[in-house]
C-alpha cells in the first residue's frame, strides 16, 4: 500500500453531484449505524500476530534485554489488532478469529469486537507492484469479488451474531479514486465504486460496523482534496443503496502519521490535516456538509518518529518508527470512535525503506524490534495498563466567541456546523444552538 501526496487539477477532481448544506442531523443518522461500537468492548487480540511477535521477544531475551522483551509481551497479551482478509483463500481466517474471540470472551468475561480488513478489490491499488491483488476486472474480477469474496465474508459475520465486528473497507481505494491520474486508475474507478458499494450493501447487520477507508491526512487531507473525497464517499454510498449504512471511516491504515502532534513537520505546512486527529476534523467537516457520517477510527500501529521522513509521501518501512498508541476510545476528538492498530507492525511494506527489508507481507523482525524500542509509553514493560488514553500533550482549547442566536443572522453557522477552532475563518456565531468547543481545532453549533 502506498501513501502519496498528490493534488489534482480542478477538472480531474470533479466528482458526483454538488454538495448541499445539511439542515440537521437526520441525513447523517440515515447513513450512520448506531453508537460507538468500541465503547465497553475489548478489541480482539489476534493470537496469530502474537505468535509472529514471539520471534521478536526471543531476540530481545537472547541479548538479555528484559525491558523490550516485556514490551513485546504486553503487545502479545493486551493489544488488539485487525485481521487482514486480503484474498479469497484467507476467508478461512474469519472462522478462526470468530472461534478465538468467543474463547477470549468466555475466559475474560469481556465483550469482544473483532477487527477485520476487507481488502481484495479488483485492480487493487491500481495494480501497484507491492500491493496488487489477486483479482482483475479484465478477468471476471468484479463477479468473483462479489460471489467468491464478499458474499462468504458477509455470511460468516452475520452468522456470528453473538460477536461484534468492525470492518475496514478497501484501504487506499478512495485515495486512488481522488488522486490517481493514470489511465489504469481512472478506468478502474467506476467499477471499484460499484464493488465497494456492493460490499457495503451485503454487510448490513446490527453486529457489523463499517468503516470506509479514506487514506490519510498526508494524502487526502489537503484543502483541495477534502470535498472530492467526500464526493467519492457519497457516490459509493449511492451505489450501496438508499438504506445502506456505515459507521464511518478509517484513516492512516498502514501509514505512519501521528494521531496528534504539537510540532507538525515542515512538509505539513499549509495543510489543515497536519496530524490524523486534525484530518478527522477537516474531512469530517466536508463529510458533514454532504450529510454523511463523520466518525473515524485511526490506525496507530506504526508511527514515524520526528525527523524520520523528509516528505509526507514516504510510506515504505519508514525508519525510525515505533509502535503507536494502543487501542483506546479516549480520543479527545468527538469525531474519533477509537485509536486502533489496523496494520500490526512487523510485516514489511516491500523491499524499500529501511535496509534489509524483505518482500511485502513477509515478517521483518529487525523492524519489529525497532518498533518495540521506540514504542509509545502506554506499552508498558511492567505489564500494567488497559485501554489507556493518549499521552500526547493537548493544548488547552481557546474558547471561541459565541454571539448566540443573534450577532450575524444569516451569516451564522447552522446547527451542527463549524463555528470556530484554530485556523477557522468562517462564521463564529450560531443561527441555532450554542457554539461549543470540542477541541483546539473544532467548535460546533450544538
From TrEMBL:
SUPFAM superfamilies reported in the protein's UniProt record: Cellulose-binding domain, Glycosyl hydrolases family 6, cellulases
Binding site for substrate: 84, 219, 255, 315, 343, 347
Active site: 172, 349
Record keywords, A-Z: Carbohydrate metabolism, Cellulose degradation, Glycosidase, Hydrolase, Polysaccharide degradation, Signal
Segments for region (Disordered): 255-276, 379-409
Gene Ontology biological-process annotations: cellulose catabolic process
One Gene Ontology cellular component: extracellular region
UniProt signal peptide: 1-19
Domain CBM1: 411-446
Gene3D superfamilies per record: 1, 4-beta cellobiohydrolase
Top-level taxonomic group: Eukaryota
Sequence ranges of Pro residues compositional bias: 387-402
Known EC number: 3.2.1.-
Pfam families the UniProt entry points to: CBM_1, Glyco_hydro_6
Enzyme class: hydrolase
GO molecular function, one term: hydrolase activity, hydrolyzing O-glycosyl compounds
Family: Belongs to the glycosyl hydrolase family 6.
The protein, known as: Glucanase
Organism of provenance: Rhypophila decipiens
Amino acid at each position: 500500500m502506498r501513501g502519496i501526496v498528490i493534488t489534482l487539477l480542478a477538472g480531474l477532481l470533479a466528482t458526483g453531484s454538488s454538495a448541499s448544506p445539511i439542515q440537521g442531523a437526520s441525513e447523517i443518522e440515515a447513513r450512520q449505524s448506531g453508537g460507538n461500537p468500541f465503547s465497553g468492548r475489548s478489541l480482539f487480540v489476534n493470537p496469530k500476530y502474537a505468535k509472529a511477535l514471539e520471534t521478536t521477544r526471543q531476540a530481545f531475551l537472547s541479548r538479555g534485554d528484559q525491558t523490550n522483551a516485556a514490551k513485546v509481551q504486553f503487545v502479545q497479551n493486551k493489544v488488539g489488532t485487525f485481521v487482514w482478509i486480503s484474498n479469497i483463500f484467507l476467508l478461512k481466517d474469519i472462522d478462526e478469529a470468530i472461534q478465538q474471540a468467543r474463547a477470549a470472551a468466555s475466559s475474560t468475561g469481556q465483550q469482544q469486537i473483532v477487527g477485520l480488513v476487507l481488502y481484495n478489490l479488483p485492480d487493487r491499488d491500481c495494480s501497484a507492484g507491492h500491493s496488487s491483488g489477486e483479482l482483475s476486472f479484465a478477468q471476471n474480477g468484479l463477479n468473483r469479488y462479489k460471489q467468491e469474496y464478499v458474499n462468504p465474508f458477509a455470511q460468516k459475520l452475520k452468522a456470528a451474531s453473538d460477536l461484534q465486528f468492525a470492518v475496514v473497507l478497501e484501504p487506499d481505494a478512495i485515495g486512488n479514486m481522488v488522486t490517481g491520474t493514470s489511465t489504469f486508475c481512472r478506468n478502474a474507478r467506476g467499477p471499484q465504486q460499484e464493488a465497494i458499494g456492493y460490499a457495503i450493501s451485503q454487510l448490513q447487520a446490527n453486529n457489523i460496523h463499517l468503516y470506509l477507508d479514506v487514506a490519510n491526512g498526508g494524502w487526502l487531507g489537503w484543502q483541495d482534496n477534502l470535498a472530492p473525497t467526500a464526493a467519492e464517499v457519497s457516490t459509493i454510498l449511492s451505489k450501496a443503496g438508499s438504506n445502506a449504512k456505515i459507521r464511518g471511516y478509517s484513516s492512516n491504515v498502514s501509514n505512519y502519521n501521528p494521531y496528534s502532534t504539537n510540532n507538525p513537520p515542515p512538509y505539513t505546512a499549509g495543510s489543515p490535516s497536519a496530524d490524523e486527529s486534525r484530518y478527522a476534523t477537516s474531512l469530517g467537516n466536508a463529510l458533514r456538509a454532504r450529510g454523511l457520517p463523520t466518525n473515524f477510527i485511526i490506525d496507530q500501529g506504526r508511527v514515524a518518529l520526528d525527523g524520520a521522513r523528509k516528505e509526507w509521501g514516504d510510506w515504505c518501512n519508514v525508519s525510525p518508527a515505533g509502535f503507536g498508541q494502543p487501542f483506546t476510545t479516549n480520543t479527545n476528538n468527538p469525531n474519533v470512535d477509537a485509536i486502533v492498530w489496523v496494520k500490526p507492525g512487523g510485516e514489511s511494506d516491500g523491499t524499500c525503506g529501511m535496509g534489509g527489508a524483505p518482500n511485502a507481507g513477509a515478517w521483518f523482525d529487525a523492524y519489529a524490534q525497532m518498533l518495540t524500542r521506540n514504542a509509545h509509553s502506554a506499552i508498558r514493560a511492567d505489564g500494567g495498563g488497559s485501554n489507556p488514553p493518549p499521552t500526547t500533550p493537548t493544548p488547552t482549547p481557546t474558547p471561541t466567541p459565541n454571539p448566540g442566536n443573534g450577532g450575524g443572522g444569516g451569516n451564522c453557522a447552522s446547527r451542527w456546523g463549524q463555528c470556530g477552532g484554530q485556523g477557522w475563518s468562517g462564521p463564529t456565531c450560531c443561527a441555532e444552538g450554542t457554539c461549543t468547543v470540542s477541541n483546539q481545532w473544532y467548535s460546533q453549533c450544538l
